[in-house]
Specification:
Number of helices: 1
Largest sheet: 7 strands, antiparallel
Distance between the termini: 98 Å
Strand order of the largest sheet: 4-3-2-1-7-6-5
Order of helices and strands: EEEEEEEH
Strand content: 25-35%
Radius of gyration: 31 Å
Shape: rod-shaped
Structural class: alpha+beta
Helix content: 40-55%
Number of strands: 7
Oligomer: single chain
Length: 169
């Protein structure tokens, strides 16, 4: 969906909204982890102007005086390659597209929240199980090594005994 993205430049005096670019905004879901990120590229250059994960704490707020624009905070936007906290605004061609975006954005937040709740306990349980498996494997290996060492020591002792017996004869 085409839109225009702005960032709030608080470092300027006075602070102002700066245009980041115009292009298609996409909400992309990671197949394995279930995380969702917002990605937006500029039209002609295809340079990234927004790239951050959607988290359940994000809240789209209507921009003052416009029914086709939304404002939100992100803790780590990777558009400039290094993560940076940003206040972003997005403006659509019409109010209908803005409402569609808000609906999808809220769906994604809910989906991420559910996946975080669902995997929180199982991930930690799986990690513990993996650690236990590693421990039992290591214990077996060390026991096997001890047994092999005992057997080789016995054989060496027997050879020494045989050598001593031969020397006496």
């Amino acid at each position: 969906m085409r839109a225009k993205l702005y960032r709030f430049a608080s470092e300027n005096d006075p602070p102002e909204w700066k245009e980041r670019g115009t292009g298609d905004v996409k909400l992309l879901k990671h197949k394995e982890r279930g995380t969702i990120r917002l990605l937006m590229r500029r039209d002609r250059t295809l340079k990234i102007c927004a790239n951050h994960h959607i988290v359940p704490t994000m809240e789209l707020k209507p921009n003052a005086g416009s029914d086709r624009a939304w404002v939100w905070n992100t803790l780590a936007d990777y558009a400039d390659e290094s993560p940076k906290a940003e206040l972003l605004a997005i403006r659509f061609l019409n109010a209908e597209n803005a409402l569609k975006f808000k609906g999808k954005f809220d769906e994604c937040k809910e989906e991420v929240r559910k996946s975080l709740e669902g995997t929180g306990n199982t991930d930690s349980a799986n990690k513990v199980a993996e650690k236990l498996e590693e421990l039992t494997v290591k214990d077996k290996v060390s026991e096997d090594k001890k047994e092999v060492k005992k057997v080789t020591e016995k054989k060496e002792d027997e050879k020494k005994d045989e050598n001593k017996a031969e020397e006496k004869n």
